[in-house]
């Protein structure tokens, strides 16, 4: 538990909390409705690739950080994997699975009937007693457009991005800011009802994303109005 809690704190501080703060800002200032399946679809289309990139970058950095204790002290996860593959080889039938995981969950003599099952099933069974809550329901996110209209939407959005259009009504246009600088911090609560913390959102990263959200939301809204009229 201590290790996973440490990892989760690192995930939060390195990239998850800034994204959460950004989405909080979109809802507070820029028209995001978290109950709308169409708004959630738009979030996926605009930002999921960036979030996955941040996840991947964090994974690469984490795998290079030295461990502090145990028999592998001073070695990084990447070091441990390299040494293990050098000493034991790579299992071609289970690519990407660490040898210690295979040793624990695969080919156990006293439980031979487990061998035909997948390793991920073994791990899930082994961890089942540690899960004390029901799975969280994933909110619905659906496209408001047909495939043909989606094509039109994304082409039009590229034009808006190229022209650097900032639509009115989303708290981003110069007259809406009234000369005030765009905020570089956003407050969020830790956990459910936890203490409030201030998250730095550098303008060079998050301002373009806020503008992109406004462009996408305004365009989606206008197209839907035309369809309904």
UniProtKB/TrEMBL annotation:
InterPro entries: Integrase_dom_put. Residues 1-80 form the Integrase core domain. It comes from the Eukaryota. It holds the Pfam family rva_4. This is Integrase core domain-containing protein.
């Amino acid at each position: 538990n201590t290790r996973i809690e440490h990892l989760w704190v690192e995930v939060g501080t390195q990239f998850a909390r800034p994204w959460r703060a950004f989405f909080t800002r979109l809802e507070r200032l820029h028209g995001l409705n978290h109950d709308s399946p169409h708004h959630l679809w738009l979030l996926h289309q605009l930002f999921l690739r960036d979030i996955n990139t941040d996840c991947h970058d964090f994974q690469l950095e984490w795998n290079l950080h030295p461990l502090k204790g145990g028999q592998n002290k001073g070695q990084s996860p990447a070091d441990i994997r390299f040494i293990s593959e050098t000493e034991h080889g790579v299992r071609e039938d289970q690519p990407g699975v660490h040898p210690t995981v295979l040793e624990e969950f695969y080919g156990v003599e006293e439980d031979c009937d487990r061998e035909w099952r997948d390793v991920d099933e073994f791990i899930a069974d082994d961890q089942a007693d540690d899960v004390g809550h029901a799975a969280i329901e994933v909110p619905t996110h659906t496209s408001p457009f047909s495939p043909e209209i989606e094509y039109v939407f994304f082409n039009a959005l590229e034009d808006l991005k190229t022209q650097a259009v900032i639509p009115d009504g989303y708290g981003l246009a110069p007259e809406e800011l009234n000369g005030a600088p765009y905020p570089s911090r956003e407050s969020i609560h830790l956990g459910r009802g936890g203490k409030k913390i201030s998250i730095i959102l550098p303008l060079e990263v998050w301002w373009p994303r806020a503008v992109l959200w406004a462009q996408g939301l305004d365009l989606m809204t206008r197209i839907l109005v035309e369809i309904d009229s």
